[in-house]
């Protein structure tokens, strides 16, 4: 049963949406019943008529609070489902949250680490460097002189998240039940995925592990630097890591003033993406401008700095094959291959033909090739691909949605840094290398090499396994033969029984006739019906026999 607090929160959401002129989002749900009532109050009148619906939704989610802001940010990545005007505005949402007090921050750190803060840090800045919906970050110095940042989970956030998630699950259920858009969006699944992401972000040990893994993947590569984690000082609600210095990637003017090689910087961003995807199968899925800095100590050889690894994506071999081969086929304009890849991977429902899907893909992608290569967007190609595939009942996988979002971030940053960025120029070597590593002679030799120890270990047992297999096969054949014999016996028995039953029915009919004291054609209708039924029954038995 829905609690009073949940209903109260639902009423508040309704009021805020109505005030921003967003009744259309309430129309399919039971909340629409109180929309007219809310319009009676000046507090709920639409004072934002000059803004489009995407802008109004942006403002409404911001007013509803950080959980809804983050939901809007996540929904903005589903461009395969949302109208462009809404997706564009949701992508602009920013997490601007009032910081909690330094006293609360210090108390949280001391409770989590189990000792006074002075026994760990020689200095702890009470003013946070940044404050977001889930956590805030403070600058500090360890007793050994190391400069660090301390990330602290916002107190009471778990309780608030659980309360809002309970309501979001309720709204998603209504949205799917009463709206075709809600069913197409898979609203309940979206909220379920969002819940998992949120609770992962609440455990900073998960983020610390992600950070360490990403740092390890790039430790011998100068293009990306990931700050180190102080594992002895990491807990569920506190994480301590190395403090970094750099220019925010979004500050293009500062980067130019530092004489950074902007073309190289843009290409390195793309290189980082493809290295993570096709080499490591593990990628930072939240690479927006706020999480990327640039080390400009050597402007001719700039290095990216990545932080905030709370959301990471992984790809299996099937995902990589889907992605890589689709990219290659797309740039070769081989739409038949794109269609075959989707059908082979099981992404498209089997009752659709390759020809149908090929035609749809060609219609969606050909306009893209009317542009020069430096204008072609991989990210928007994926959006087109997902939108087209959804008409063919393709269920877009969460890891591919994360990948699309990351690619859009990287592409947008790259073009902002260097407008002439040719993504294909950077991507092609990675894709060619991936094909060689996956299908070339080296790849085959590597697979044999990796499997050989296992084969060698199993070799002494092979004669016994072959003998067991043959014995099992013989036993199966014997069982099958016995089953055939049993069926024949049963069939013969059935034939004999059918014959006996047939003669019995005919005999019964004759007995009834003999008992009649009048000719059969003068018998009553009831007797005639009985005799006719017996005759038909004996005929059916004879026919089946």
Automatic annotation (TrEMBL):
The Gene Ontology biological process terms listed for this entry are: ubiquinone biosynthetic process
Its UniProt pathway annotation is: Cofactor biosynthesis; ubiquinone biosynthesis [regulation]
On whether Metal-binding is a keyword of this UniProt record, the answer is no
Q: Output the SUPFAM superfamilies linked to this UniProt entry.
A: Protein kinase-like (PK-like)
Write the record's keywords in alphabetical order, separated by commas: ATP-binding, Cell inner membrane, Cell membrane, Kinase, Membrane, Nucleotide-binding, Transferase, Transmembrane, Transmembrane helix, Ubiquinone, Ubiquinone biosynthesis
Q: State the Pfam families in the record.
A: ABC1
Protein's gene:
ubiB
**Gene Ontology molecular function, alphabetical:** ATP binding; kinase activity
ABC1 atypical kinase-like domain: residues covered: 92-342
Name the family. Belongs to the protein kinase superfamily. ADCK protein kinase family.
Phylogenetic placement of the source organism: Bacteria, Pseudomonadati, Pseudomonadota, Gammaproteobacteria, Oceanospirillales
Domain of life of the organism encoding this protein: Bacteria
Protein known as: Ubiquinone biosynthesis regulatory protein kinase UbiB
